[in-house]
Amino acid sequence: MNNLNFYRSLIFLSLLLISSCCIFQSDPPDLRITGQNYPGTVNANQRFDLEFIVGNFSSGDCDAETSSQGVVNLKLINRATGVVQVNDTETLNGLSNNSNQMFTFSVVIGPEGTGTYDLIFVVDPNNTTGDTDRNNNTQTGTIVVN
């Protein structure tokens, strides 16, 4: 009987070690901006799209669940006034390793908002996913509204 309990315990511990990645989420995602597309200049009252692609390049199998806890954030800030014209947040899907998700933000800036805008796109700004490399999570740029 003791041998049977010993083997059961051994099998349980082995299964626990094999599945510990998913139980303890020890394999965090490595979220990266893998692409972006947005105009450098637009006209006031013109709808334009800002597109960003986020990918997950973790090194294991338990990454999809952890990436779904994160968000992406887009801000457009009027450089002259400091007014935040756009502050939009979207949720990440569960991204498996080597998977991508596209985010499209559709924006209109009225004639009272002409000028130069600083664009800041951040993946998982609060690091809720435990992202392993934060150096590839921000895209900055400039958009001029005439």
Largest sheet: number of strands, sense, barrel closure: 5 strands, mixed
Unreliable spans? 15-23
Order of helices and strands: HEEEHEEEEE
Number of strands: 8
Q: Radius of gyration over alpha carbons?
A: 22 Å
Strand content: 35-45%
Assign a percent range to the helix content.
Answer: 10-25%
Number of helices: 2
Structural class: alpha+beta
- Termini, distance in Å? 82 Å
- The chain-level mean pLDDT equals 85
Net shape:
elongated
Task: Give me the side-by-side strand order of the main sheet.
Answer: 2-8-7-4-5
Question: Can you tell me about this structure?
Answer:
With 146 residues, the chain is α+β, with helices and mostly antiparallel strands. The chain has two helices and eight strands; from the N terminus they run αβββαβββββ.
Short characterization:
The strands form two sheets. This protein has a five-stranded mixed sheet with strand order 2-8-7-4-5, with no helix packed on it.
Key attributes of the depicted protein:
single chain, about 150 residues, alpha+beta, 5-stranded mixed β-sheet, 3-stranded antiparallel β-sheet, 2 helices, elongated
Give the topology, please.
Elements: H1 2-24, E1 31-37, E2 41-42, E3 48-56, H2 63-67, E4 71-78, E5 84-91, E6 99-107, E7 115-123, E8 138-145
Parallel strand pairs: 2-8
Antiparallel strand pairs: 1-3, 3-6, 4-5, 4-7, 7-8
